[in-house]
User: Fold this.
Amino acid sequence: RGRAFRPPRADPDYHRSIHMGPYLTRTSLQRWASLLVLSLALASACKPKPAPVEEVFSTGMVGLSYLRRNQLPEAETEFKKLIAMAPDHPLGYPDLGLAYLQAGRYAEAQKQLERAHDMDASSTDIGLALAKVYALTGRTDDARKTLQKLHRDSTSNAQVLFALADLDAQATDSAGVLTYENGLRSVLAVAPANLAVRIALVQSFARRGAADSVVRQLEEIRRIPPEPPAEARAYLDSAMTPLRAGQVADAKPHLDQFIHLM
Assistant:
């Protein structure tokens, strides 16, 4: 299990893991770098009595620690402190927005993230978070516009490409399903070893009975290191036989178990 990060789907459970993977968050290193840059800027600012560098840094890191442990009231308190220390910098606002998003407080999340976006429209993290709020509140067109702007600025960003594809994840009409699958393929064009995206393609192909396409993706999954666990390999082998005969329905129980074990 856990061979690769599984990008979050557009569902109500998403906000509970929003700060825990590469789809939407800064890496720890980037977070430290951002806080350090802000701290240095505060230290050199011409405003009276800037907040001490150590206090700004520690407040941000404590807030992130609370957020990762899903201690959302505590995270909210720390990020509000950070904003009070640096109201003209776009660091505290997106973190507070993520805390609200993780809590399902979408209106408050949108307010903070839009403010952060106004301050730093070039930030991919902020744009992705804002697009997720829009998607979760039914503003798909706004989410798509936000992501398309990010895509124009960074055409090979796998996180942005996945977010764009994910907007069509629930499509049931043939055009929407094709758009979704093509979106997932665009992610694989820049991240061919992304196991989670290949599994998403497998599931989409299986839903529409495209046995040959399922087999091709499963063969690619076999080649992605590390090797699947033995139990998962057994279910994969069991699924392959009916799939090669075009019998998706017969393969589905084995396929579902394989995906569950991955």
Q: What stands out?
A: The first helix runs from residue 28 to 44. Confidence is low (pLDDT under 50) at residues 1-29. The chain has 13 helices and no strands.
